[in-house]
Amino acid sequence: MSKNILVFCETEAGAPRKSALELLSKGRELAAALGASLSAMVIGAADATTLGSYGATTVYAVSGDASSTEGVVTAVQGAVSASGATVVLASASALARDAFPRLSARIGAGLVVECTDLRVDGGRVVARRPIYAGKALADVEVRSAIALYTTRPNSFPLSASGGAAAAVVAVSPAASAGTTVKLVEVLAPAGATVDLTEAERIVSGGRSLKSKEQFDAVVRPLAASARATPGASRAAVDAGYAGHGDQVGQTGKVVNPTLYIALGISGAIQHLAGMRTSRVIVAVNKDPEAPIFQHASYGIVADLFEVAPALQKEFQKALL
Ligand SMILES: Cc1cc2nc3c(=O)[nH]c(=O)nc-3n(C[C@H](O)[C@H](O)[C@H](O)COP(=O)(O)OP(=O)(O)OC[C@H]3O[C@@H](n4cnc5c(N)ncnc54)[C@H](O)[C@@H]3O)c2cc1C
Fold first, then answer.
1. Which residues contact 136 (CB under 8 A, 6 or more apart)?
2. Residues lining ligand 1, judged by CB closer than 6 Å?
3. Residue that terminates a domain, selected from 156, 171, 186
């Protein structure tokens, strides 16, 4: 049977999320190296033109509930069986983090989570993922017939193939008995910034901001000027300066931006676990011994209340 790589594409307002298109871009490279075909799956209606332009030749449009874990497990299982896929890729979103371990158990497929790279070596997919809270990287191979991988958003560059619209195959898996979750309401987050997990730029503030008012007056305007998403350390969240959805770290969100600016954040291991794979880290801290400097691409030993407005002015000039 011919090999097939299937990408689970999450959508937002009907359009594929950027993280899904990144995965298709990477999937195309893997498919070429494996001599496999590349297909996509969506829950609901398929944007066959966009998915085709990123290299999917077929898109499986699966009926089901995209908002519940159970719905996603059933839908991806249906698409795996319809497509005969042996490699399944998904972005490590909150939903996929919940659904893929269950899918793995249900279909007996090996799963590698939070990958930051995928490559083909000797005809097999090799996944690279951080271990020990990001202190080391492990290369992992899956030996089961079907292999599942979740990857961190922003790990792969977007590259369109300019391909024709994908062929659409409708799939209607039977809903599994015992589904107990029903979507009641979707609450949009306050502010219209890109979600932290997909953001290309993040400006995060720590306990040193000292109040919600100062967090709002310093971190958010700098983030806006850099077209970045605001984030926070747990200490800042616990103190009420920012919301729980803004927390970066082991018990918050794992982020992987091109640029991460840490304002007055010490660099505790639990914070690093959520952001150390960022491509460029800029740390502003008064204490030259702060652990964050060991991981920073650029370190500024200074008072954040002086540095942040100066950076803001420069971003405003540069990004006019
Ligand atoms: C189980 C567990 C899970 C955790 N999960 C997370 C998590 O997900 N995310 C997370 O962030 N933390 C997490 N933590 C907490 C973590 O251990 C740290 O306590 C937290 O990250 C510290 O936040 P902070 O850097 O803002 O504060 P601090 O450690 O207090 O650091 C403040 C820093 O600001 C600097 N500073 C002060 N004033 C200024 C100024 N004016 N200008 C410049 N620099 C200044 C100081 O030098 C200091 O380095 C977790 C802890 C545990 C035990």
1. 130
2. 206-208, 233-236, 247-252, 264-266, 268, 270-271, 274, 284-287, 290, 303-305
3. 171
